[in-house]
Amino acid sequence: MPAPPSQNTPRTSIDLHQPAGLEPVSIAKSWGRELWFTGVEARGESLVQTSSGQIPLSQYLAMGRERVCNGRELLLLKILEPNPAPVLGNLYLEAHRSKHEVYVVTHVDESAWPDGIGAVRLGANQRLRHQFADDEAFRRAFLSAVRDYEAIRRAADEGTHVYPQAEIAKREAMEAFTELVSVRPGDVVNVPPWQPHSLQHGVRVVELQTPTFERLIISFAQRVLTQEHWDSDEAIMGLDLAPPAPPDVVPVAQGIEQIGRFDDIAAWRVRIGPHRSMNLDFLPHYAACICLSGSVTANGLTRHVEQACLIPHAALPLTLTNPTAEPTVCLVAGPASTTAPA
């Protein structure tokens, strides 16, 4: 985490009763890049737009965390933009002990997926699972396939000549233990703890996630730069092998769908007709909002496609307005609450 702003940091006058525009920081990845709208890490920090310029998100929060977040943690809002090249653009195959993630697919690169249907690797391969005597045998075989691939991957990373056919065969044998799920723009993917998952090349998504950083890397088709080892043993032995539940998209009001609800965060997709407004009075703590199509005005601040804003606690309730003659779609998320529609 970055150090808190020093006492020499110039003070900026900010009205915490107003929405704050979020300026993302671009984080390069070996598989593509991430755009962080609410990230505060040593690797990079998002910015907040103010009337007098931009300031780091950490500085904004330090001006009044209670008035901004009402004592809650700020959820993570990102865009994931994988390279369209096969294999190169595939994310880590990983699992989380406690973190929840929600993906909303915004674009499928047709140079990678000519029919416009992309994929995410999600969950265990149920057909293969049932070919084993029990789940422990399935886990052992999965782990063995991962270790076989890891050996050839590390040899390649260290400069040893590896026959491409051998690398492909080992990788495909390992990948057979998980399932590829087809996705299109607009689809929602919920990733609960302990489900193996890997967003695939050329599939761009908005991601909402629990405000914690923890992951277990099962495998990766490139050199892992962020740690020296894979976490295959712990991850595979802890995996939830049941089929992942279908996306939990539930209409809760006219124009509002709940697309995810966990212990700590909830998210809604909001559709607003031309020149219409909608009041979201069920958000008790704060709200993060990102525009998916068209334009939306959140409490007076207009956002266009892939622009986001934060509605601090002191600025609630949230009113969304479509200022255009075309329909608009946006995502709204915040801490889960028993008062919100479900």
Describe this structure in words.
- Helices cover 17% and strands 37% of the residues.
- It has helices at residues 57-62, 65-69, 126-129, 135-157, 164-175, 232-238, and strands at residues 20-23, 25-29, 32-36, 40-41, 44-45, 47-50, 53-56, 76-82, 93-95, 101-108, 118-124, 178-183, 188-191, 197-199, 203-209, 216-219, 250-253, 256-261, 265-272, 277-280, 287-293, 296-298, 301-303, 308-311, 318-321, 328-335.
- The two termini are 34 Å apart.
- It has 342 residues and is an alpha+beta fold.
- Strands 7-6-1-24-21-26-19-18-17 form a nine-stranded antiparallel sheet. A six-stranded antiparallel sheet has the order 2-3-8-15-10-13, with no helix packed on it. A four-stranded antiparallel sheet has the order 20-25-22-23, with no helix packed on it.
